Automatic annotation (TrEMBL):
Signal peptide: 1-20
GO cellular component terms given for this protein: extracellular space
Highest taxon of source: Eukaryota
Sorted UniProt keywords: Signal
Protein name, entry field: Interleukin-9
Amino acid sequence: MNASMLSYLLFSCLLLSVQAQNCTVNEIIRYTNHLLRKSSVSCPCRETAVSSCSCLPIAEPGHELACFVEGTKHMLKNNVSSSKSIIEWLNQTFWIQLDRKLCESLARGNECRYKTKGNTTEFLNKILRTYQAINK
């Protein structure tokens, strides 16, 4: 391996660690796991039927942050969880990441694009899987 290849690899690793740091990956994973443990909502989301189940956006790739902001905002407004302070923290964190263009792979735009909606558990699992993928 020559010196230029080594410097490229080191630079790439540095960029990945900075992205993971700016994305506050470990904290988001920890708080999302906490919410999932406390969540008893596993009812099916039916957008057309009257239901006590919240229907939250399951983001398309590249639109995760906008959908995470929208979904956590909905959770706060509708008192979906008893862990209000954690959801407020997540909402604020997602908003800052979106606004400051952190975690660029998750924010190709400020619009939440999705094809499906899911219940609270499905939404939280989407957050968890997304940040676990960054953490690899």
